[in-house]
Write a structure and sequence with these properties.
The protein is an alpha/beta fold. It is built from nine helices and ten strands. The strands form two sheets. An eight-stranded parallel beta barrel has the order 1-2-3-4-5-6-7-10, surrounded by six helices. Strand 3, helix 3 and strand 4 form a beta-alpha-beta unit. Helix 2 runs parallel beside helix 3 (78-87) and helix 5 (142-149) runs parallel beside helix 7 (173-180). The longest helix is centred in the middle third of the chain and has 22 residues, at 104-125. The chain is globular and about 55 Å long. It starts with 8 loop residues before the first strand and ends with a helix.
C-alpha cells in the first residue's frame, strides 16, 4: 500500500458548540468538511447521559448531513453502551483518573480493574472503550497508556493517541504511535505548547499549557500523519477543536481541518 492509498475518516469533537440545535450542528460540521463527529454525551449538551436511548435518533438526524457519530465522550453506564449499540456508535472515549492521594500505581490498578469490569459490556453490546491520555491527573503519555492496557483485548479496549498530550509529555509522534499501535483505535489531532506566565525576574517560573492551531505547537502533525500512513492506518482522525483562544474556535478549526486533510493526501 502506498502512502497515497492510505485513507482516514475525519471527525470533530463538538464540545465547543453545546448551544447549537442538532440541525444547526449538523449543517455547521458538514460545512467544515468533516466525515462525522465525536459527541459529548455529557450534562448540558444536546443529549445528556440520561438520554442515551435517544442516540439512535441523533445519529439519524446527523445522517441527513452526511455525518456519522464515530464516538461519544461519556461515562460507562450500561445504558450508554446500549444507546451506542443501537445507534451504531462503535466507541466510548474515556480518560483514566490518577489521584494524588492514591499515588500513580494504585490509581492505575484501580483504572485497570475498572476496564476489566467493563469487558462483559463491551462484548455484549459490541462497543469498544477508547482510552485517551491527558496531561495532569491522568495517564499522560503513550507509554503510560500501553502499561495500562497491555494484555487487554484491543477489540474491546483500545488506545486513543493524542498528539498534543504526548508532545506535552516530551514524546516524539513516531514513538508515541508505535508504542500504542497494538491497541490504537483512534488518533486525536490537536496541538499545544508551554507558555511562561511570568517574567524572568520572578522568584520561580510559572508555566501554563496553551492549546493552539495544528501547525503552531509542540506536536508535529506532518510527522504524525506521515508515520500513520507508513503504518497503513485507516481509522479515525479526530480534531478536538480545543483552543485556549476560545473566541476564534470556528476560524481555527476551519484552518486545522484543511491542514490535516492536506497531510493525508
Amino acid at each position: 500500500m502506498s502512502l497515497s492509498e492510505s485513507t482516514v475518516s475525519f471527525s470533530v469533537f463538538t464540545k465547543p458548540w453545546r448551544t447549537k440545535s442538532v440541525a444547526e450542528l449538523g449543517s455547521f460540521v458538514q460545512s467544515l468538511g468533516f466525515d462525522g463527529i465525536e459527541f459529548p454525551l455529557r450534562e448540558g449538551y444536546q443529549l445528556e447521559p440520561g438520554e442515551a436511548h435517544k442516540l439512535p435518533e441523533l445519529a439519524r438526524q446527523l445522517e441527513d448531513y452526511g455525518l456519522r457519530i464515530f464516538s461519544v465522550a461519556s461515562g460507562t453506564d450500561e445504558r450508554i453502551f446500549g444507546g451506542c449499540a443501537e445507534a451504531g456508535i462503535p466507541m466510548i472515549r474515556v480518560m483514566p483518573a490518577i489521584r494524588q492521594a492514591e499515588g500513580y500505581l494504585t490509581s492505575e490498578r484501580r483504572e485497570r480493574e475498572k476496564l476489566e469490569s467493563l469487558l462483559p459490556l463491551c462484548k455484549q453490546y459490541g462497543v469498544r472503550i477508547g482510552v485517551q491520555q491527558h496531561y495532569g491527573n491522568h495517564v499522560t503519555d503513550a507509554m503510560g497508556l500501553l502499561h495500562l492496557l497491555e494484555g487487554l483485548d484491543p477489540q474491546y479496549v483500545g488506545a486513543i493517541w493524542d498528539a498534543a498530550h504526548d508532545a506535552l509529555a516530551g514524546q516524539q509522534p513516531e514513538y508515541g504511535v508505535n508504542i500504542v499501535w497494538s491497541h490504537l483505535c483512534m488518533v486525536n489531532f490537536k496541538n499545544a505548547y508551554y507558555h511562561r506566565t511570568n517574567g524572568p525576574e520572578a522568584e520561580a517560573a510559572e508555566w501554563k499549557r496553551y492549546f493552539t492551531s495544528g501547525s503552531q505547537g509542540l506536536a508535529s502533525w506532518p510527522r504524525a500523519a506521515s508515520y500513520l500512513q507508513e503504518r497503513q492506518y485507516n481509522g479515525v482522525v479526530c480534531l478536538t477543536a480545543e483552543y485556549t483562544n476560545e473566541q476564534d474556535v470556528e476560524r481555527l478549526i476551519r484552518q486545522d481541518i484543511a491542514y490535516a486533510k492536506s497531510l493525508f493526501k
